[in-house]
């Protein structure tokens, strides 16, 4: 079972007992967190899509630690002008452990087979080519 959930503005594919690094969360280390914006849910082949989110579904997680990522160096320069800027940045992250996926009020399941597409008739093809020729001649 896995889910695609939106955490701090980013989408993550999560499953039980998975450790994920997300952008810094305000919760304390060791506290429990629940994410309600579950976009997709897969339960052993049964796929449930949200529009945009699945009502009643949530992902439970525990905050393990707060840490910083690797340093990124930003260097700007304009030649022959004497302009140089050197900047560094370290992104703050939170490591969370996914404890479970709760799927109580699931919506409709996605269809596995798409409806067959209607084939184009000769008249549709001729009409489409006439439209494109008209627009090309107008330009």
Q: Write down the domain tally.
A: 1
Q: What's the story with the biggest beta sheet?
A: 4 strands, antiparallel
Q: Specify the overall morphology.
A: flat
In total, the number of strands is: 8
- Physical arrangement of strands within the biggest beta sheet: 2-1-5-6
Taken in chain order, the helices and strands follow as EEEEEEEEH
Keywords: Ribonucleoprotein, Ribosomal protein, RNA-binding, rRNA-binding
Function: This protein binds to 23S rRNA in the presence of protein L20.
Protein name: Large ribosomal subunit protein bL21
InterPro entries: bL21-like (IPR028909), bL21-like_sf (IPR036164), Ribosomal_bL21 (IPR001787), Ribosomal_bL21_CS (IPR018258)
Give the secondary structure arrangement, pairings included.
Layout: E1 2-7, E2 10-15, E3 19-23, E4 32-35, E5 38-43, E6 46-49, E7 57-78, E8 83-103, H1 122-138
Summary tags:
139 residues; bL21-like_sf; flat; ribonucleoprotein; mainly beta; four-stranded antiparallel β-sheet
What does this protein structure show overall?
The chain has one domain (2-111). The longest helix is centred in the last third of the chain and has 17 residues, at 122-138. The chain contains one helix and eight strands; from the N terminus they run ββββββββα. It has 139 residues and is mainly β. A four-stranded antiparallel sheet has the order 2-1-5-6, with no helix packed on it. It has a four-stranded antiparallel sheet with strand order 3-8-7-4, with no helix packed on it. The chain has one helix spanning 122-138, and strands at 2-7, 10-15, 19-23, 32-35, 38-43, 46-49, 57-78, 83-103. The chain is flat and about 65 Å long. Part of the 50S ribosomal subunit. Contacts protein L20. This is Large ribosomal subunit protein bL21.
